[in-house]
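Please fill in the sequence for the structure shown.

STRUCTURE ENCODING:
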């Protein structure tokens, strides 16, 4: 739904932003990049402060209950598995690259 909403207003927004420039045919596209880039960077900075990185850091802003934290921890452990504790060595790299099916041969 957001994609449709964004697509419906993107042309109008782009036209308006190009009209800001003194010469819209030549320099108008720069304003589109400046505006959309500023929105993206601003949203990224906002998310850096609001979205917790890990469940144990979510306790400060109370966005997850204890049950939700346990679910997230369990999913993270299932996703990472035993690979988190292993160190990357030349032996591990060799074992990873040895199977032929990863080379699409």
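FILLED IN BY: designer on duty
SEQUENCE:
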């Amino acid at each position: 739904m957001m994609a449709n909403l964004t697509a419906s207003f993107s042309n109008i927004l782009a036209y308006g932003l190009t009209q800001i420039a003194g010469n819209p045919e030549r320099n108008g596209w720069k304003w589109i990049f400046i505006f959309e880039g500023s929105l993206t960077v601003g949203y990224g900075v906002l998310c850096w402060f609001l979205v917790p990185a890990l469940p144990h850091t979510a306790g400060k802003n109370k966005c997850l209950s204890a049950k939700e934290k346990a679910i997230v921890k369990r999913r993270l452990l299932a996703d990472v598995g035993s690979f988190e504790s292993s160190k990357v060595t030349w032996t591990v790299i060799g074992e990873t690259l040895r199977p032929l099916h990863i080379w699409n041969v």
